[in-house]
Every structure is written in structure tokens, then in C-alpha cells.
């Protein structure tokens, strides 16, 4: 096993590790999905067949393929098949409205689109608006004119294509909301994903919660269109962990699986932890096999943490990162999670192995400890850039490899990072990133709305929720229900405002920029942070 660990540590690509796992851990369980079980040998073989099938369709290195659907073990197989020929998987947020899906499919230039059960009607509608899409492949889903994934895959030999690939080759493209109102495709390489999964670096050992657990079993419940979903599944492949895959987060099903399997690790956003604890069976389930719950996307309220520690009885790890950093770069260890609270509990922790952090001012100058500025990071985990957006890439990552996160915070004397605000105006609701510009663009299309600004306000359940401040045109009449219904026609439900404030005019500075802080201030009064 020591020899295998050394080979995996030295492997330049995720696909090399799939081959190593397939050879040395052939009969070991890789994925469980419902009543289907997939070994690492089957994952390696199936991804070879998918690679050959994609090659036969003309897919080559650098091409994008897309997936629209909920979590599925065959998504990972198709993903790795694409990767073995150098193609790049682009999972699409299934919660998006059809026009948003069309934009992503068109932008990533995918000619082949995989889709999952329940999305037949959506994929039929959007693919008709995407002339570049030539082939549809249903994963346990059928549609006239589409191929069945299993038949399509099994029509080809399980011969490894052996396309030469390296750490710098593109591997995964995830779309993140954009400040301009258009999502951007963040490109991750094999190297950035492995740096995240293996915590590669030479500045210290891995932490206790990162160490392998014998017969490790992890529940993959977060959506695959997030780095928390796909990244978790890939990290489990790298570490040889058995992944139990849920199509989507369901607290009842999650509790059943925790009872059925010796699940040792679980990643959830705080809102999902709260939903789990509120379940009527939460106090009946045996959580004794659970070693760690990792959580991210937003801090966790102290009272919720106390309840979670008491009910679940495991270690908790808060994670801070973003799509552009291929996942986690900073973590608050279990030892810092104190039921009585404490100053460190207000932080997101310290940088992981191989990660550099600094706090900078608007000109990029490094600020001293205790001074609030923009958080910048440098590591092998950083993305390669944004798809087809060289200027945005250069604005985000400088020539020395420092990535501007868009978050404002400070480092204390011990190196703990504290998040205070967002340099960008992003709202995080239930772990989903929402940019005001996206919502505002949708609302401006309403003929009776004269002006609008969108802000995030505190929510006990979701961390933050979307509020729209609307100026109605002279002589027009609008209700809150009218505005929300209009938004739902154009954008995903989770991005839609939960409440509307009708005001006479928006506060602006002399240059005309909306003063969002003034709009937010009444709702965040008394809060330690301007984020929740």
C-alpha cells in the first residue's frame, strides 16, 4: 500500500489515479448509487469505454462536453471518460432557468450533452436552441433522438486511449455567477484538482482530519455542478474512499444511508445541517461511525453548532474556498470548534498545506495583521482562468499567481482568517452564489420597474436571502407577488427575491453608483459581520 500511495502522490493527472485504483484496488468499492455498486476496476473500464465512444463521435482534446442532471455515479464515469481523451466536463446547474442553461451550453461550445432522469423536457427544449449541440446521451433517461448511455458506452471496447496528458491540462469547467450578470466558466486543471484533493505542498503535514480513514465511506450529497459535489467525488477517488451518492440532498434519505453504511465523512452547507437536525428522526439515528462533518459556503451560528456537536457527536471542520480555487484553501479544525464559542470560532481557520494568503488594498499592497482588505491567495489549487475571458482572468489572477477572491477580511497574528464582507456584492444563500446583477437584469425586463437594486439580508435558515429594492415607474402599480413571479420566469428559483421593498429612489453616490451598503445597513444592524 505504501508503494501505491507513492505512485498516487506522484501521479500528474486524475485519470492516472483512476488507472492506479483500477489496477491496485480493483475489487474495492468506488461508488454506490441506489442498489448499484461500482468497483474501481469497473470505474476504470467504464471510463475507457466512454472515452472510446466519445472519440468515435469526434470529441478531441480541449473539447467541452456537458452534463445536465442530478448526482449520479455514471456522471463521474462519463466525466472521467471525457478526461481520458483530454476533453473537459462542464456540469450545468440543473436549478437554472432554461435561458440560463442555453447560455452555458452555447458559451462552453459543447457538442455532446449528457442528461439525467427528470430533465428530458428541459434538455429537449434547450438543445433545440443550441445549434452547436449535435448529440444527446441520456444517463438512465430516455428521449427521442438521444442515445442511451449504457448502450452507447458498451458498444465500445474498454481500451485505454492513452492520450498523453499532464498536470496543466484542462479537466473541469464549472460556471460561477458573474458580476456582469453573465456566468463565467472557471477552468480547473488536473493539477489544481489534485492539489486540492491531495493537499500537495511542502510547507507542512496534512491535518488529522485529512488523513485516510481505514474503510472510509463518504456521503456525496452536494450537487455535482458545485465544486463541493464534483470536488468531493473526485477527492474520494483520489483517496480510495467509497462514495455513497445521493441524487440530491434529502435529510430523510441521508439519515437512512448513515444507518445503512458506516459513513465516516460528510460535507454539508450549514443550511443542510440545520435541516438534518430538524428532522424528527435526528435523535434516533446512530451517528457513531461519523468522524467528521465538513461544511462551507457560510459560517455556522454558534447555537446550531452546539446542537450539531451534541446530536452528531463528531468533529467539525469549517472550509473556506471558491470554485476558482478548486475548493477549500482555508479550514477551521475540529480543535477550534468549542461549544462555548471563542474568538477563533468567528474565523474560517488557517491556510491548508501549500496555500499562501495575504490581505491587500485596492492597489495590491499587502496589509498588516488585523487590517481589513481583499483576501488574495496563491497555490497550485488556483484555476487556470475563465473560459474565453482573458481580461477577467487577468483581473482575477495577477502575473505572480495571486488570485483576488473578492472577499474582504483580515488575518490575525496567529494566521487565522476572518471574513468581514464581500468586495464584490455576491449573496450566498443556502450555499448558492447569487450576484445582484443577475437578478437585477431579470427584474429590469419588467415594463413597470423603473429602477432596482438587489441586496442580501440575514436569514436564519439560509444564511442570507435575496431582497429587491424596487422603484416603480410613474403611474404604474406593482405588488410583491408580481415582481417575484416575473423573476421566476427568467432566473432560477433560488436566485429570485424572497421579499420586495418598494422605494421612491435608490441611494447613489455622485458618480451614480448604487450605495448597496446603505440599503443593507438596516438589516445588518447589530451583526458582527456584513455577511451571514
Protein architecture, described:
It is a single chain. The chain is α/β, with parallel strands linked by helices. 30% of the residues lie in helices and 25% in strands. The chain contains 16 helices and 26 strands. A nine-stranded mixed β-sheet has the order 2-1-11-10-12-13-14-15-16, with helices on both faces. A five-stranded parallel β-sheet has the order 4-3-5-6-7, with helices on both faces. Strand 25 (463-472), helix 15 (480-490) and strand 26 form a beta-alpha-beta unit. The longest helix is centred in the N-terminal third of the chain and has 17 residues, at 40-56. 47% of the residues are buried. The model has no long low-confidence stretch (mean pLDDT 92).
